Amino acid sequence: MSEAVERCRVAEIAFEVVSPQEALARHPFLEPHDLVGALWNPGDGDIDPSQLTQALAKGARDLGARVHRFRRVTGLQREAGGKWLATTDKGDFVGCEALLSERAQSAGRRIVTLMLDDAGDAEPPPMAVVWREGRRVGLVTSAAYGHAVRASLAMALVERDAAEPSTPIAIEMFGQMRNASIVSESPCDPTHARLRG
């Protein structure tokens, strides 16, 4: 178990060492007869693939994409000039046109790093809505607690006019608004000096 603890520390994964009784209380279907302890990650969990698919489709639609259901991709081929042709069981789809359209639409958006004032007990989930002055301006793409920098961080795709550093924004998480700000450079601690104390 000490090796797993060390891997978590090096990877900056939030964890807590719990007794077999605590592990059983949190996961009643465990077989604790041979457990000496467990690692608990409060931000870990599982995903319902169906709900994830629906959430991703909704997010894509909200950003202007069209979702074509019940089309199985039967082939993917790169053509001369770099175009991609996707063949489906209901016809062909030229991917280059869609990518050019997306590029034109996304010119008004940027990827930014967000630092949360207080994330509470969890990090923002992917597709959490980013707000500025009561207006929806983007979506979270990923998030984690940075133990080395002692802050909850998130990456988000936001409208260009809401992408300036120090812009006060909020992230909607599990029905609550959490204040955050855009940081000019992603905080990092490449030498792990803070982790070592």
Describe the protein in words.
- A hairpin with a 2-residue loop joins β7 (129-132) and β8 (135-146).
- The two termini are 23 Å apart.
- The strands form three sheets. The protein has a six-stranded antiparallel β-barrel.
- Helices cover 23% and strands 35% of the residues.
- The protein has three domains: 2-40, no CATH class; 49-106, no CATH class; 109-196, Elongation Factor Tu (Ef-tu), domain 3, CATH 2.40.30.
- The protein has 197 residues and is α+β, with helices and mostly antiparallel strands.
- The model has no long low-confidence stretch (mean pLDDT 78).
Q: Which shape, going by the Cα principal axes?
A: globular
Oligomer: single chain
Number of helices: 5
How many domains? The number is 3
Q: Assign the CATH topology of the largest domain.
A: Elongation Factor Tu (Ef-tu), domain 3
CATH superfamily assignment of the largest domain? Aminomethyltransferase beta-barrel domains
Strand fraction: 25-35%
Query: What percentage of residues falls in helices of 4 or more residues?
Result: 10-25%
Radius of gyration: 21 Å
Averaged pLDDT: 78
Query: Class of the largest domain in CATH?
Result: Mainly Beta
- Which series of helices and strands comes N to C? HEHEHEEEHEEEEEEH
CATH architecture of the largest domain: Beta Barrel
What is the end-to-end distance? 23 Å
| Poorly predicted parts | none
Number of strands: 11
The class by helix and strand makeup works out as: alpha+beta
